[in-house]
Amino acid sequence: MDKWKLQPARDLGMPLGKRLKSLQRESGLISTGFHFIWWTFVRLYMRVWHRLRIEGRENIPIQPPFVLVANHASHLDALVLATPLPCRLRDHIFPIAAGDVFFETPVVTSFAAGMLNALPMWRKRCGPHDLQLLRQRLVEEPCAYILFPEGKRSRDGSMAEFKAGLGVLVAGTNAQVVPCYLDGCYYALRPETKWPRPHRITVRVGKPLDFSGVSNDREGWLHITAEIEKHVKALMRQRS
Amino acid sequence: MDAAARERLFGVSHAFDNPVTTSVTIAVVGALVVVPMIIWLLARLGRVGDAHRKELFTRFYSWLVITPLILVPILAGAAWTILGIGVLSLFCYREYARATGLFREKAISLMIVLGILLQTFTAFDNWYHFFVALTPLTIGAIMSVAILRDEPEGYIQRVALGVLGFALFGTCFGHLAHFANDANYRPYLLLIFLSVELNDVFAYVSGKTLGRRKLAPKTSPNKTLGGALGALVLTTLLVVGVGHYVFRGTAMDSASHLVVMGIIVSTVGQMGDLMLSSIKRDLGVKDMGVTIPGHGGLLDRFDSIILVAPAMYHYINYFEGIGNGQAMHILTGG
């Protein structure tokens, strides 16, 4: 008879403060409840306040692992990208958020971890170890990430160059990368304003890209990043 | 709600009506004062090393928090006792679910949590029949919600972990809450907590002094036969001594009944300890959590009481009856 496949929580034995900031954090019943409440609210808000339009919804993969990638112009972006994803995946969708913004104070950390289910990426000290952990989790669990490869919000609405870390996550794995373009987020919540304006937001979802055949080395990572950037830019030009 | 029920649930002014409650409370508080002095003295005499002393103090500080958390609700009234036990059950289940991976099955977990909440309610209500009914009903709910995902692969493991979790942290633990429906619940619960916790201490101390042969080296390498037998003798003596005052004037107050009770507490308590060791070995984890510094998780501390609670409940209930004369269905009526 085969042995049972018992798999303790990845974050077993971590004190709460460390758990919230950990890349290994897993949701329990209470966090799932919070996610459900939060995302129901976000869906409603997006529909009513921003009259969110989703083009190419059929391109979103049914099963993880996958990574949603888009241009980054406002704090609304991750919320917008998570809106079209199915409810059953809620606990397995992790927006990758800047550690120095979302994981510094206890209150904001609790919100980012408890409500958004975000995982921190420390921009100044993100070592290869963190990226490896994310890569491993993406495939093993499997789960889905929401990622902004520009690495920071645009200050003027234009798109910056993509960073190569994205390639490290997916090179040679079966995780699909879904390029998306967010239209209107910059005007809905400008960097200098505090509250979002009721500006229409459109998200264009492109066809998923497969990088399982790409080698997991510097050359492969750069190739992947360039390829994704090309697809996001193509979606940007596709004005409706 | 009649006056007797209100008195039992919230009657803090009668906390020390029973002399056993008073004596045990004084003894426990006294122990908390004396123990740090003993550790300090042993350290001064050079009997314990620096690292060992630190570890002993970490454990002691944890006891300083755990003891009032157990003692105060029991003294304050049955309502607080039941609430405390309900919360403890939920936290213990959480630890178990995270360690076994069952927490990923949200629907099953939800059924277990609801089951535990309802069982806690039955204790408030003094509705033992519904408490009994909740075991098969919750098992049915677990088996059913696990089908909904339409994924038969791993079904047996998922539901078995769920049923085991509910049996241990819902049903077994729930008996502790139902003790609170007896007018004499304070001495009963104090006797159980005191003897079960001291049973661990006795096993540790006699194992250190007379232990040679290993009890179950693969399950728990530090436990010895000497420790187990030492605990059996000492705990039985304790239960006979304290039990005589707890059960004075009732059917349980005979030497034979009390000796059997002591043997039950000691053996079943040690079984609970070994049960958790087996679960931890099987999972490949050292502690179930980090809730209590120096002890590990809550389960590392309360493992022995899980199995003792139903055994003691039914032993006392068979000969003496629990909750005699107390109003039933306090909240639901009828």
Instruction: Figure out the total of helices of chain B.
Output: 11
Return the average pLDDT of chain B rounded to an integer. Answer: 93
Largest interface: A-B, 15 and 21 residues
Order of helices and strands of chain A: HHEEHEHHEHEHEHEEH
Q: Bin the helical content of chain B.
A: over 70%
Oligomer: heterodimer
Distance between the termini of chain B: 11 Å
Structural domains of chain A: how many: 1
DSSP, total strands of chain A: 8
Helix content of chain A: 25-40%
Key terms:
A: 240 residues; alpha/beta; Glycerol-3-phosphate (1)-acyltransferase; B: mainly alpha; 11 helices; globular
Summarize it.
Chain A is built from nine helices and eight strands. Helix content of chain B is 74%, strand content 0%. Chain B starts with a helix and ends in a 15-residue tail after the last helix.
Which helices and strands, and how do they pair?
The complex is a heterodimer of chains A (about 240) and B (about 325).
Chain A: H1 16-21, H2 29-49, E1 53-55, E2 66-70, H3 77-82, E3 93-98, H4 99-102, H5 106-116, E4 119-121, H6 128-140, E5 144-147, H7 165-170, E6 176-183, H8 185-188, E7 202-205, E8 209-210, H9 218-237
Parallel strand pairs in A: 1-7, 2-5, 2-6, 3-4, 3-5
Antiparallel strand pairs in A: 6-7, 6-8
Chain B: H1 3-10, H2 19-44, H3 50-76, H4 78-100, H5 106-125, H6 128-145, H7 155-179, H8 185-210, H9 225-246, H10 255-283, H11 298-319
Helix pairs in contact in B: 2-3, 3-4, 4-5, 4-7, 5-6, 5-7, 6-7, 7-11, 8-9, 8-10, 8-11, 9-10, 10-11
Tell me about this structure.
The complex is a heterodimer of chains A (240) and B (334). Chain A is α/β, with parallel strands linked by helices and 240 residues long. Chain A contains 9 helices and 8 strands. In chain A, strands 1, 2, 3, 4, 5, 6, 7 and 8 form an 8-stranded mixed β-sheet that branches. By secondary structure, chain B is an all-alpha fold. Chain B has a domain at 79-178. Chain B has 11 helices and no strands. The radius of gyration of chain B is 21 Å and the shape is globular. Chain B starts with a helix and ends in a 15-residue tail after the last helix. In chain B, 42% of the residues are buried. The mean pLDDT of chain B is 93. Classes of the chains: A alpha/beta (240), B mainly alpha (334). The A-B interface holds A 4-9, 12-15, 26, 28-29, 32, 91 and B 94, 97-101, 103-104, 106, 109-110, 113, 154, 157, 282-285, 287, 289-290.
